[in-house]
Amino acid sequence: MFILKEAFRGLSKNKLMAVVTFGVMFFSLFIFGLFLISTVNLFLLIHKAEEKVQITAFLQDDLSQDEIEVLKRDISSLMGVKEVIFVSKQEALEKFREELGEDSELLEALETNPLPASFDIKLYESFKDPDNLENLSNKVDAMIGIEEIKYGEEWVKILDRVIKILVGVDLILGIIISLSSIFVVANTIKLTVFARRDQIEIMELVGANNKFIIGPFLVEGIIEGFLAGAVASGLLFGIYIFFAARLGDFILLTRELFISVIIFGTILGYIGSHISVKRYLRAPIGAEIPKGK
Amino acid sequence: MIQIYDTDVIFRKEWYGLKDINLKIEKGEFIFVTGPSGCGKTTLLRLMYMDLFPTKGEVIVAGFHSSSIKRKEIPLLRRKIGVIFQDFKLLQDRDAFDNVAFALQVTGAPKKQIKERVLKTLADVHLSHKRDSLPYHLSGGEQQRVSIARALVREPFILLADEPTGNVDPESTKEILALLKDINASGTAVIMATHELALVKRSPYRKIALKMGEVIEDTSDYLKEEIFLDKL
Ligand SMILES: Nc1ncnc2c1ncn2[C@@H]1O[C@H](COP(=O)(O)OP(=O)(O)OP(=O)(O)O)[C@@H](O)[C@H]1O
Ligand SMILES: [Mg+2]
């Protein structure tokens, strides 16, 4: 009770500092939110790109229905294979026709269907790296009845590199943003604590427990962090609404994202004030040990 | 109650804050600690409320040993000791009542008990009528009395006063001294550091004189022998 009362007293008696701290937190959290949005969409993009990665195995023309079934079962049992879809010669032709569109009358001239039947082999996410793809392709290629294998080796390799770089940059950026937020916020809160160091000194003097000394500052930090997080995510949401109309559903935003900003704000307030107050507690509570001798 | 054995406080190499201190302070004593500026009075008091630990030797206060006290126990010790300073150290953002109540609030005392104790203690220092005043509106002497009330509200067995009259006019100095004597008469030991020799000369109380960190006079020398015997 005392801790809560002191926290509100601290906020209302030091309005300017409270506003400055709030502003700094808000700015940090806004940047953090933008970062989260970019990250979520980056992964979404990666996911979409990876979804397209599959192995296409073209079949020899003279296979019987049974042989095809056996092949399908064999491929399905390979590690990492999620689904095997059979595309018959007829289906391949229709697809081709669709792709040609207006020019499809060219096909009418053909007497036989030149397209082979094939399997579209879909893989699990974690098996989509270049090594695995090559490995799997070789295995499928070696099966009897398979004419040819295609999986866009070059493209897969580039995609893999790009993903690795993007995820790495994103991770480093995330760490930098988080740490610098904590650093900046802690330093701002330190000013608040500095302004009230006499209060800490008196508390230590009259025998307050650590809990009572640190408590009000932690509660203040948490309240400010929570509010700054709420406002920052509100603004992010506003910006999203504004741009969503223009960019269609390219940008994805979830409720979890806004909640994350608020949670991060609260944690930021907690850690920030924790670091700051601890600095002003004399080592550890009262007690100086001369370093003579 | 307070024992200090063979204690040195060395701040930096060869820089003695206190040197070879042996003291024994009994329940209910009134003691003046005197000496010129920089002789170590503040340092000696800080040892007693364990704001500072000896470089060598041992300080024992209310059963807590400086060599073995745990971090968590320091607040417990502080609750048994009242401390007042030259600069009062009042919180400027709250009135006299709340300043005194603060000492009880920070240890989670129940509200009703806080009110009772604070009002009684403010009456003891003759400040009941100023309980709603902010420190800013109080004279130096009144502020010091508020800080005395804050130190006493927990009924400590000892009151440490570091130059309590250093910032107040002569009239208030008399009041504060009278107050400290009352407090002592009710059984609380009072240890007061001052460099105003005029205050001390006329008084019948025990005096400990420091010079360059060493005790050069202790009017109850018989206690020293006791310490000597204790050690045997
Ligand atoms: N934290 C510290 N670090 C280094 N030196 C210190 C520290 N505290 C005190 N001293 C030194 O120890 C000596 C004694 O200081 P102390 O404050 O105890 O004197 P004092 O008798 O209280 O003086 P005054 O009458 O001016 O208050 C001084 O020389 C001072 O410079
Ligand atoms: Mg001093």
Overview features:
heterodimer; A: 293 residues; alpha+beta; Alpha-Beta Plaits; 2 domains; 4 strands; B: 232 residues; alpha/beta; Rossmann fold; globular; binds adenosine-5'-triphosphate; binds magnesium ion
Care to describe what's here?
- The complex is a heterodimer of chains A (293) and B (232).
- Chain A is of the alpha+beta class and 293 residues long.
- Chain A has 2 domains: 2-48 and 160-281, no CATH class; 54-150, Alpha-Beta Plaits (2-Layer Sandwich).
- Chain A is built from 10 helices and 4 strands.
- A 4-stranded antiparallel beta sheet of chain A has the order 2-3-1-4.
- In chain A, helix 2 crosses helix 9.
- The two termini of chain A are 46 Å apart.
- The relative contact order of chain A is 0.16.
- With 232 residues, chain B is of the alpha/beta class.
- Chain B folds into 2 domains: 1-80 and 156-232, P-loop containing nucleotide triphosphate hydrolases (Rossmann fold); 86-155, no CATH class.
- Chain B has helices at 41-48, 74-78, 96-105, 111-124, 140-152, 170-185, 197-201, 222-231; strands at 2-12, 15-25, 30-34, 56-61, 64-65, 81-85, 158-162, 189-194, 206-211, 214-218.
- In chain B, the strands form 2 sheets. Chain B has a 6-stranded mixed beta sheet, with helices on both faces. Chain B has a 4-stranded antiparallel beta sheet with strand order 2-1-4-5, sandwiched between helices.
- In chain B, a hairpin with a 2-residue loop joins strand 4 and strand 5.
- In chain B, helix 3 (96-105) runs parallel beside helix 5 (140-152), helix 4 (111-124) packs across helix 5 and helix 5 (140-152) runs parallel beside helix 6 (170-185).
- The longest helix of chain B has 16 residues, at 170-185.
- Chain B is globular, with a radius of gyration of 18 Å.
- Chain B starts with a strand and ends with a helix.
- The interface between A and B is medium-sized, with 27 and 35 residues.
- Magnesium ion binds at residues 41-42, 162 of chain B.
